[in-house]
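Subject: mismatched residue count in predicted assembly?

I count 1412 residues in my input, but I want to confirm that the predicted structure covers every chain. Input:
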Amino acid sequence: MTNRVQIVGATGYGGLGILELLLAHPEFEVTGLIAREGAGSRIDEIYPHLVGRTDLVVEHAEAAAIGADCDVVAFATPDRVSQGHARALADAGRRFIDYSGDFRFRDAADYARYAERHPGIAETSHGAEELLGRAAYGVSELAREAIAAAPIVGNPGCFAVGIILGLAPVFHDGLVEGGVVTVDGLTGSSGAGKKPSPLQHLSHLNDNVIPYRVLNHQHVVESEFTLGRLGSAEGAVVDFVPHLLGTTRGILSTMHLRLTRTVERASLLARYREFYEGSRFVRVLETPPTLKNVLGSNYCDVSLFPSADGRRLVVMSSIDNLMKGQSGSAMQNLNLMFGLAETVGLDRTPLYP
Amino acid sequence: MTNRVQIVGATGYGGLGILELLLAHPEFEVTGLIAREGAGSRIDEIYPHLVGRTDLVVEHAEAAAIGADCDVVAFATPDRVSQGHARALADAGRRFIDYSGDFRFRDAADYARYAERHPGIAETSHGAEELLGRAAYGVSELAREAIAAAPIVGNPGCFAVGIILGLAPVFHDGLVEGGVVTVDGLTGSSGAGKKPSPLQHLSHLNDNVIPYRVLNHQHVVESEFTLGRLGSAEGAVVDFVPHLLGTTRGILSTMHLRLTRTVERASLLARYREFYEGSRFVRVLETPPTLKNVLGSNYCDVSLFPSADGRRLVVMSSIDNLMKGQSGSAMQNLNLMFGLAETVGLDRTPLYP
Amino acid sequence: MTNRVQIVGATGYGGLGILELLLAHPEFEVTGLIAREGAGSRIDEIYPHLVGRTDLVVEHAEAAAIGADCDVVAFATPDRVSQGHARALADAGRRFIDYSGDFRFRDAADYARYAERHPGIAETSHGAEELLGRAAYGVSELAREAIAAAPIVGNPGCFAVGIILGLAPVFHDGLVEGGVVTVDGLTGSSGAGKKPSPLQHLSHLNDNVIPYRVLNHQHVVESEFTLGRLGSAEGAVVDFVPHLLGTTRGILSTMHLRLTRTVERASLLARYREFYEGSRFVRVLETPPTLKNVLGSNYCDVSLFPSADGRRLVVMSSIDNLMKGQSGSAMQNLNLMFGLAETVGLDRTPLYP
Amino acid sequence: MTNRVQIVGATGYGGLGILELLLAHPEFEVTGLIAREGAGSRIDEIYPHLVGRTDLVVEHAEAAAIGADCDVVAFATPDRVSQGHARALADAGRRFIDYSGDFRFRDAADYARYAERHPGIAETSHGAEELLGRAAYGVSELAREAIAAAPIVGNPGCFAVGIILGLAPVFHDGLVEGGVVTVDGLTGSSGAGKKPSPLQHLSHLNDNVIPYRVLNHQHVVESEFTLGRLGSAEGAVVDFVPHLLGTTRGILSTMHLRLTRTVERASLLARYREFYEGSRFVRVLETPPTLKNVLGSNYCDVSLFPSADGRRLVVMSSIDNLMKGQSGSAMQNLNLMFGLAETVGLDRTPLYP
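Triage response: the counts match. Full output below for your records.
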């Protein structure tokens, strides 16, 4: 039986990503493309690379009943959009997955910490906070059962996916001294979406590296909550510096921490492989991850390098920010929500070279 | 029934490309990876983006009987390799497809014109010229029946694919004055393969444009023969200037010609669409093609712009040089050779953004 | 004696370019930076790479009398700005140079042909057409005396510089059959200025090639007038296809033509060298020009390749679009206007690698 | 009086860089270009961007007496070249500056620590260790007097320049807890020189990020020695992860440390500005540094961000690796060695955009 998906925010990169995955998926069907801009146009007029692949037309939000004619809604929208529709959907028994921070947090207190870090929503309160407890946080590998059962899935932030998957085993095992990690994250420009801006202008960004929101990025909040509550972890502090690169796709995170006890590399690698057994999208490698080795795929590559004295550790992870960092994780979560193997429709070789 | 393929030259970009397509194909199986370099290694050690996707091991050419244990051999090798094995394969009744210029020409005279333009093989004669007549030239859209029946397919040169598909309808209809076209071709660096060289060094090529082999590229020869013998065409002269770009993938060809009679844009577009009816990989567009709109896919996008007086015409085409320009065409030809729909295993959305 | 320059449109890439050249020039001084955006800010707040190099402050256009407190005004502004100030400046005896198409044409008829090709100013008439005859068109190498004497200089369009310098000798000598040339131009993104747009978005343009305004770019008009009136030329038709590249700087133009008579390469090269004797910024090379070989400099590199039969010719030229294609030419013209050697302040080695 | 320089290793990027700076310098003259490859060619044949700027010819090492006909030798050579000539030059009273690690260390013990980290020279001993004590380590801002007086200057490693200038004030003031810093360094490809390699191949590196030599890069050694011996510092441990980017030029270093006491941002910025007073090439900024803001210039941009609780600190610095990271520092040191202002010949605006 085909599962029917409505995409809200269909004309941004996030909407495009899940549309492409769903079009190629044997068990899902797209029943509606909803967006504020581009309504009335075929999606292949907006994105000509789709010519010949779909004749779907974008509809205006007002013209379409959000949640109608579908089994699940995918909100590929900014913060504070899905929370405005959440109660109506919950009342109608309609499940949804959301790309923003709206449903990544378990309660109002956690959400408030996030909101104060986010420049777009600072000092606002949640519009449907009673539903936060019913949402699952969608780093698939860490919460398969919760995601499968949840009426709402909060799809994770792109940086958070790479940080959390890279560090989950050491936080789980209580190996991080003081719970403190420093992370330098490098991201392609597509993470900021398709909207033109001076920062995204090719003449400015090409061949450049631009650090931004130093120690102040909102994805840190969900990373700290998630890592700090795993297994033996007793909280997490993530000192995070994001850097914008002159590339389109990819996030590489380099993470530094002090170990609570000396660990050899071989045993750490073995522990990571055990931790991610059955998680086909996490590849634990001997060599450093790179952006190109995961491009266009749903993989998260992870690698580990302890210092010579075994007291400090470098962990690196790489993802395609629009796949494992966004629509790939969403597809994986939709698979889980509908009882499918998490890899269906995601079995793609990275595009190299 | 699964068709069994042996890949020779498996560790170059061409071998990698057909390997990836075959691994994901429901009707083909790879039975051997043969290469001079990397023998003894798993292919995912050489290309770590393949970790988790295959455990195939590269074998040395001497250690493996070329053509053994397979239904077809794919030679992803330079000029003059497959011609050395051609007689033995023909005698054994083993079909093969070849990526080089070895079997792109119908007879020794045509091949000689090619050889004199090719810096690597100048002044050599063909090693198996009696087999040239049994080979089909593999621009799939123009020769489906010949390819399906042929024991040997000469996979086309990357530039030639874009030029030929872009100009076939106007040559076929006798619309090109004097048969003369001027073509500026822009190519990503991967067309030159994985071998390091000063020209391919990132510090040299990044942000650069480097014209090379001006009016002297060997792909012109197969383009001239193919276009000049279509329908009402009476020969072709292609003045071609290739330009190397600081990108990895993609070829965009801009082609200029004088029309033998005034033609309106709408009727030309209609004619192109008619010509390519049933050719799902050729997309005739109203807007100019771009590299990114075909990236990672097997599409060839084509667009047309006559001059205001309707006497001169600009045709543009774009392909991914490693897909439609190489392994994608090879996969399409293998499908045809084994009686499958030409699109099987090639139904991929371009990677955008 | 220092010459005093006021820059109007100081915060765009054009204003920035001439500011940087003037700051380093021994004979010029900048007395005012005027712009609509950024007024009140120091220019090094808008462009932090200038920290430590100048403390000039941007003034609002209304707050500053255009043409006051200076010997010359440099309008680094879009079309139709300088023509609004031209009469007042002429009346005050103040010279100016303009970056737009406003003063590139000798009379209203020529300007009208340009205006109808330009999307921003179509169907408008010139605001000071009686002054067109007093302006010199600023391809410095072709009009040194006129520029030195003119009260107004129309700085040339970026594509036009590369096309005109590449083709001037063959048009001058009547070698171009029918006066027809086809030109494929490749440009970095900075030619479109600093304003964000979907086309300039890094995620869209990076690794891409995007043809645009096919056979319909406004720079063709000044190229056709200039080339078609040189020496023995009898008009010019330039079929021009601009292509946007995912690089920041540089224009490479590949130009094709049929020769009126057979010419050998050596004699053409000799003729080009003779034609450009004394023109230090035009380098006639044996090998194809590249973008990087002129990056950051005022050079125009030119190279020539006849077909084997000597009847057709490929000419290629490369420039830095923000230098020889814009502010470098402006600086060269300002030098000429003030009786200085044209190379002063422009003696820069290209930035390679 | 003009100072006369002989360049050894003249055809690599390092030799090219110092050649270009010297050609434009009012007080220096290049008397010899010596190299193993390219001997007999004009340097503008090897680097065509130099056409019109010099007619110097490269000589073979054997053909030229190293140190003859000059006041100073610039060795732009790999490790273990200059140490083979050092005694002869010292005996002849000829000063030299060296780009490799040969003379960056004060004694044999320090050099041994470096050598064991360097893959190219591991387990070798120094060829002229008695001269190590006479060499000055050339981070110009920290050792002007020593450099001015020294017969030998060891030009610093590219990463080391950015790390040392970024952290010198906090190490000097004893503010770094345990002397431990973690550094993620991002570098363009030109740091590896012009020699082709798989890692530098555009198809591999373009759009990529490739961490390498994790916690094991040889530039750490000189950084640790230099920082750990400044003012109140009591040693330094630099956990360093270099990352190769798909850009040509630039190094951005992001450095994390714990402070020995709480410090406010304003006072730290003030302290940095005081520390670098009179150092025109170090710009202490409020906003994060970027690669493009220093491109082609000798600047080192530095910025500081303490954590909210004031106990941890992020310092970022950016340089052009071929200028301040190599030839720019060399030129600055040559100026100091010959009693000139350190900025002569280096007064360049970064190339932006």
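The CA atoms of residues 230 and 241 of chain C lie 23 Å apart. Marking this ticket as 'not a bug'.
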